[in-house]
Amino acid sequence: MPPSSPPAFAAVDLGASSGRVILGRVGTGRTGRTGTDGLSLTEVHRFPNRPVRLGGTLHWDILGLYRGVLDGLRKAGEVASVGVDSWAVDYGLLDATGALLGNPVHYRDSRTEGTAGRVAAVLPPPRLYSLTGLQHLPFNTVYQLTAARGTPQLGAAQRLLLIPDLISYWLTGTAGTELTNASTTQLVDPRTRDWSRPVADALGIDLTLFPPLRIPGEPAGELLPGVREATGHTHPVPVTAVGSHDTASAVVGVPAAGPDFAYIATGTWSLAGLELDAPVITEASRRANFTNELGVDGTVRYLRNIMGLWLLQECQRSWESEGRPYELRELLRGAAEAAPLRSVVDAGDPRFIAPDRMPARIAEACRDTGQPVPRDAVETVRCVLDSLALAHRRAVEDAQRLSGRGVSAVHVVGGGAHNELLCQLTADACGLPVVAGPTEAAALGNVLVQARTAGAVHGGLADLRELLRTALPLRHHQPAGPQQAWRRAAEAVSAQANG
């Protein structure tokens, strides 16, 4: 690149179904200002993330993912720095020499079944929520560690690294625990932004397993000589701590014009909520199953986890395994013409967490609630998308009610921003305008934090988001149609969730 080109930053963005290494260039371009010519993203490498079941346990293929990271960094060429983000809650255990003690267990593995009751016997849910403000999910790290108690691996472990911290450790040889991801473990107090020792002590969790906390923007080491050789980098390359929970980076990548916005980070999960200055830790918030995860620049991500496009992905996988592969584009075209709100399900129903048989499970949920069973793939897809739009509506309404913060627009970012039907249905369901894009919000947030650390851009989150609005194409969806039908459907789903 010519000398006037903006500096390049490599975002390692690991999702539940694939990993990416994305090259971002951020800074002043030919016009001398940060703008369209000063921000660009290029996906240099994408690789699959395929879990492996061994001995009855579902694992992540973490070495395969690391190989994909190295391949991507080699394709990226010389960069100013590297940042790593991924999904939350899962971890790898290391022995005293730093060697990995087995492949990390997948959060969808069944080992945590029944663990919530054991934890609740020690820390009743209201008490646990008062200490951590975290939404109950059966695979939160506290439940995984409780399930692993007494196992040889945990007994031999000298270090516990969350997934993005594990990748960073292999790249640099320097261990740390990035705060936004640590906040998803249910071991952090969001008010102090530090470990909750009352939780750890009550559950017998050794916090010395975790290396020191670090916040986005802090240094996370430099690429090891062997890593530089493997990736073709001839100069020292710093690794920068970013919002290593991919949702924390995605929220940085929301191109909002002011504070009165809701976001929905869509992908395998939909994470819908608000960006706040302080956590909301109330009994009403706990009962609504809202979480207070930590964000970049001292913010709080007040949100609810929703099953997301996992429902659609698993339907497609099931149909393909049955010899009936469908093109997603055709399914969406048919779903757009299908009868709206014919059948809707609770997207948070635990029956949808595990893989396999998703169309059959959706049919069972419809049958159990006295609704018409989808007759074909198109009607199943319409049921999924209507149900997700209703889940988005419920989360946005609940977040406003519980926080006291109003919303004038909803930003849909991540892979689901490609799905125009889902975005329009979300606008219709919420009765609010929806701004769709960017699809690579996590990578953009990752790159922007790196760029700010390197001095290529300056300012707070509002300044970074102004850059995004200037540089990126966005799609706008206005709500259409009467709200009565959505209100009735929302009441039906609420009855399902409560019944």
TrEMBL record:
Highest taxon above the source species: Bacteria
Coiled-coil portions: none
Stretches assigned to the Carbohydrate kinase FGGY C-terminal domain: 262-453
Domain spans labelled Carbohydrate kinase FGGY N-terminal: 78-253
Annotated segments matching region Disordered: 478-499
A Pfam family the protein falls into: FGGY_N
Gene3D superfamilies in alphabetical order: 3.30.420.40
Record flagged with keyword Nucleotide-binding: yes
Keywords, ordered alphabetically: ATP-binding, Disulfide bond, Kinase, Nucleotide-binding, Rhamnose metabolism, Transferase
Family as reported in the entry's similarity comment: Belongs to the FGGY kinase family.
PANTHER family referenced in this protein's UniProt entry, alphabetically: L-RHAMNULOKINASE, SUGAR KINASE
Protein name per UniProt: Rhamnulokinase
